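Schema walkthrough. Field components (list of strings):
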Amino acid sequence: MNEILIENLNVWFGEHDERVDAVKGANLSVPKGGSFGLVGESGSGKSTILRAIMGLALTWNGKMEVGGETLGPKRTRTFYRKVQMVFQDPYASLHPRHSVDQVLSETLSLHGFDDIETRIAKLLDDVGLGPSFRFRYPHQLSGGQRQRVAIARALAPEPEVLLLDEPTSALDVSVQAEILNLLTDLRAEHKLTYLMVSHDLAVVGHICSDIAVMQLGEIVETLTVEDMRAMRTTHPYTKHLLESSLL
Amino acid sequence: MSVSDTLPKPGLREWLLTDTPTSRRHAKATVIYQAWLSFKRNPMAMIGLGILVFLVLVAAFAAILAPHDPFTQDLAARLQPPLSEGYILGSDSLGRDILSRLIYGSRITLYIVTLVTILAPVVGLFVGTIAGYTGGWTDAILMRITDIFLAFPRLVLALAFVAALGAGIENAVLAISLTAWPAYARIARAETLTIRNTDYIHAVKLQGAGPLRIIIKHIWPLCISSLVVRVTLDMAGIILAAAGLGFLGLGAQPPSPEWGAMISEGRRFILDHWWIATMPGLAIFTVSLAFNLLGDGLRDVLDPKDGTS
Amino acid sequence: MSNLLDVQNLWVKFPTRTGVFDAVRGINFKLGQERLGIVGESGSGKSMTGRAILRLIRSPGIVTADKMDLEGVDLMSRTEKEMRAVRGKKISMIMQDPKFSLNPVMRVGQQISEAYRLHAKVSKSEAKRKSIEMLEAVAIRDPERVYNMYPHEVSGGMGQRIMIAMMLIPDPKIMIADEPTSALDVSVQMQVLEIMDKLVKERGMGLIFISHDLNLVSSFCDRVLIMYAGRVVETLAADKLHEAQHPYTQGLLNSLPRLDAPTDRLQVLQRDPAWANEPSVSA
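Field assembly_structure (string):
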C-alpha cells in the first residue's frame, strides 16, 4: 500500500510570460515504511515537490495522495498530524526569540495534546538532547543541536510520514553522521515513512532504498539504491551525477 | 523542575549568565540580563539612560525639588538673570522662577512622550503587520490609508485639530501621533514581508497555526525591536514637534510651563534677557540628545549588525 | 621548489566579553608552487588562516606570527598601504559565493577591468581587451557578451569563473581559494576546479585551497593540512589520505557515508579534548 503517491504533478510559479515550471509531470510512489530519495542539482524541482505535498506551493495540478487520501488545495490539521517536514537550514527553521520549550509546547498544544510536560521531555530524549536544552534559545545551540530540535518539532504530532529537505547539508561532516544515525534510529523506532531530498548521493544512498533523479523539473529516472551503487543506470544524467560524486 | 532541586545554590550572577536555563522564567531572565549587560558596555547609551532616569525622577519629585511654585508671579522680581538670589536660572517676564518651571515642565514633556509612544507605534505595528502578512487587497487598502496620513503636514493637521477641538496639549499629541504612525507601519510591514517567508514561519504553519497566532506570537516579537529603536530615535523629533506646536501656541496653553511655550514667551526678550528662551531650549536639547543616545544603544543591543542576536 | 610563502607560529585572537578567543593557535606551514589544501570543520580556523595571510583581519582581531614571508619578504610589518599593493597583485583570494563577492550593481566586465587597472597602468581599452582575454581563459564562451552582463544574470558556476578571471588577471603568485565550490552544484564544481587547476599550473602559482570537504581537497591538491580547534593536527600528501594517522582525520573519513561502502550506522566522531591541546604539526 502506497503511503505517498504522486501522479503527473506539475508545479509552477508566476503566470503567462513569467511562468516558471518548477516541476513537470512528476510520478513517484513510496510504500508505507519506505525511504525514498529525491536527488538533483539546484533548480531541479526536488524541494518544490516536498513543498507541494505540504501545501506550501500555490499553483499546481496533478494528483497527490498521502495515506490513500487525495490532497486538495488546502491541508487540514489532521494532515499535519500525519505528515511533517524537516527544513534544510537549522539556522533559519527556528524562531530566534522562542526557546526550545516554547517551540515544542506550542506545537503540542496546536495539535491538542494535554500532557505537554511529559511529551516535551520524551521528545528531547528521543532526539538525543537532554532536559538541560529545554529552555535554551537558538543562538545558544549549535547547528546539529538546532536540527535535532527541528526534528523533535516534526515528531511532536506523532506523524507517520517525514519529509526531509536536505536535513544535513548545512551541517559539518561529523555532525552530519550523528543526525543521519538519529534519522535511521527514529525511522526504525517510530515506523516512519521518509521522503528525503538531497543533492548528496552518498547521503541519500545511506538513508534511502529507492531514488528518483530530477533534472530541470522532471524525474528522469527512478531506481533502487543498489542499482545506483552498481552503476546500473539508464539515463545519462544519472550517470553524470554519479561520476561527479565519486571522486 | 527548579534550580534548587538539581544544583547547589549558585550566585545570582551565574544564574543569570547560564547557558542552560531551567524554567521559562529563568530563560526570560537570562535574556533580559544579558541584553542589559550588552547595553551597559556602551557608555554613551548609559549617559542617555541616566539623563532620562534623572528626568523621570525630577518629574516625580517636582514638588520637593522646585524652589518656587511655577505659576506664582512676582513682578518685582521679573527678568532676573541667572545666579540671582533665589532664582538660580533666572526669572521670566512675569517674575516666575525658570528653574521651577523647567522642573514642572518635565512632567509635561514626559506626558507627551508617553502618549505618543502608546499611540503611534502601536497603531503602526497593527496596521503594518496585518498588511504585510495578509497581502492582497487588505495590504493595498491599509497601505493607501497609511500614505494618506503620511501626506499630512504635521503643523497643518495640528492647526486643523485646534480649529476643530480647541488648543491644548492632548490635541497636540494627537496631531503628532496621527502623523507619526505611518512611518512605523511601513517599518512593521517591511519586517513582516521578510519574516513571512522564513522557514520558521512555514514550520509553524505546518503545525496548523492560524494567521492571528502567527502575527501576534511570531511576527510581533521580531518587529518590536526595530520599532523600539525607531521610536527612541524619533523621540527627539517628537519632543521638538511638541515644543514647536507649543511655540506656535497650538499645544500647551499659558500659564502651563511646557518647554516649547517657554521658548515662545522668551522670544521677545532674547537679546537682553537671553536666559528665558535659552534655558528651556537647553532642556529640550538635553532630553532629545538623551533619547538619541539611548536609541543608538538600544539598536546595538536589539538589532546588532554584526550578525549576533 | 622555492618557498612562495613561509608562515611560522601564526596566531589569530579575538578579544570578547568573556575572554580571548583563539581562532588560530600557532600554526606553521610553507607553500611552494603547489596546491595545498587546508581542511577543517566550522570553527577550525581554516578561513581565518587565509584571511590572516592577506592581513584582512580587522581590529579587534589580533594577528601575530613569528614569520610570515612572501618570497622572503615579510608581510607582518607592512603598512596597510603596502598591503594594498600585495593584495591582488601578489596574493589573491576567491571566496565561496560569487553572489556575495561580485558587486551587484556593476557589470562583471567592468569589475574585472577595474581589478586589472588597480595594479597596472593601462588604458581602459587595453584593460577591456585583457579582461575579455581572461574570460576566454576561464572557458567562458562568448566573452564579449558576458563582459556586459550583471552578476545576477550569470549562473553560479559562471560567476565563480568570473571571480577566478578577476583574481588572476593581475598575475598573482599565490591564490587562496576559500570554499570556492561549496555553493556550486556538483557537476559545475568539477568544471570550476579544472579551470583553476589549469591556470594555476600554467602560471606556476601556489594555491591554498580551503574547504570542509576532505575528499574534494584530496582529489584536487598535492598536500593536505587538517585543522582542528585552531591547530594543524595532521599533514599528508593528498594521495596518502587513507593512511591518515591522527584519530580526528580518521574519524572524519570514517564518518562520511559512502556510496561504495554501505553501512547501517555511520561512525560518529568522538572528540578527544586532548586534540585541541597538542602542538601544531608543521607543514
